[in-house]
Amino acid sequence: MRLGESATGRTASGGKGDLMHRMRGRVAKAGLTLACAIALGIQAHAELIRPKAVRAYPDIAADINGIQTYTYNPDTQTGTFQVTNTPFLLAHGPSDAGESQIHPNDDGTRQQVVSLRLDRNGRLIDDPANNYALYGTVVLGGQTFSGLLLQGKPTAFGAVAPGSETVAQPGRDVFDLNMKITGGALADRFGEDLYMRIVPKADDFDGQFTRDFSGVAAKSNTRGYHAPSAVPEPTPLVFLLVCGAGLALWRQRARIVRGVGRGARC
């Protein structure tokens, strides 16, 4: 056996060199696979922002005459995603008492509109045209709010096609988005942001954003996950208890002061 050889007949550095060669081969193969996928037009699918979204309040339910469309422009490799539906209920609590009907404005407008631009992979593009708006009339706590109820700017978009394990509604397309509130009569009641989930009843979306698709009966829920919590007014019983506790503390303090005074005189 020559100097520098191992018992297997390879040099001591040969094994390490073979390992590096295999690693370079795997990296090259992975790169080639990725390049082929791009050449074949295979895009990564967008995923939902909140795969398991839970109920939150306030919550705007909308459905009637809902339409969802997506139009792709191959020249710019971008698409426009739009949803228009009719809001009918604002739930600001878990009980029936915490529900308010949304009615049309004086001009007959009762509408919820979403419009945003996406790239060819379904990622949100920062664009001035990205917008969310809610129009209608609602009565809360005896006060009437009418006109533009909410307006926001979409900040994130997610989507899954039918068959995904992350979808709460099997066999349905699901889209969702986060938004920053920018105005509207109900802005203070929803906090700084909104979350919206859209589920069309019938859609031809297959996970690709390089072609047009559309859907009907686009049901949605728009929720204020970080809405400011309401501070309840004190009830008469709470008021009496607080006052009673304060009075008892004052009497105890007075007895202590009197006791100290007697001791000083002695």
Count of individual domains: 2
Q: Write the element-wise H/E pattern from the N-terminal end onward.
A: HEEEEEEEHEEEEH
Task: Please report the total strand number as a whole number.
Answer: 11
Radius of gyration, whole Å:
31 Å
The whole-number mean of residue pLDDT values reads 79
In short:
The chain has helices at 14-39, 187-190, 236-265, and strands spanning 59-73, 78-91, 99-101, 111-119, 131-140, 143-160, 174-183, 193-199, 202-203, 213-216, 219-223. It has 266 residues and is of the alpha+beta class.
Features:
36% strand; alpha+beta; 11 strands; 3 helices; 2 domains; eight-stranded antiparallel barrel; elongated; 266 residues; disordered N terminus
Structure description:
The chain is of the alpha+beta class. The chain has 2 domains: 7-42; 59-223. Helix content is 23%, strand content 36%. It is built from 3 helices and 11 strands. The protein has an 8-stranded antiparallel beta barrel. A hairpin with a 7-residue loop joins strand 2 (78-91) and strand 3 (99-101). The longest helix has 30 residues, at 236-265. The protein is elongated, with a radius of gyration of 31 Å. The relative contact order is 0.15.
Which helices and strands occur, and which strands form pairs?
Layout: H1 14-39, E1 59-73, E2 78-91, E3 99-101, E4 111-119, E5 131-140, E6 143-160, E7 174-183, H2 187-190, E8 193-199, E9 202-203, E10 213-216, E11 219-223, H3 236-265
Antiparallel strand pairs: 1-2, 1-10, 1-11, 2-3, 2-4, 4-5, 5-6, 6-7, 7-8, 8-11, 9-10
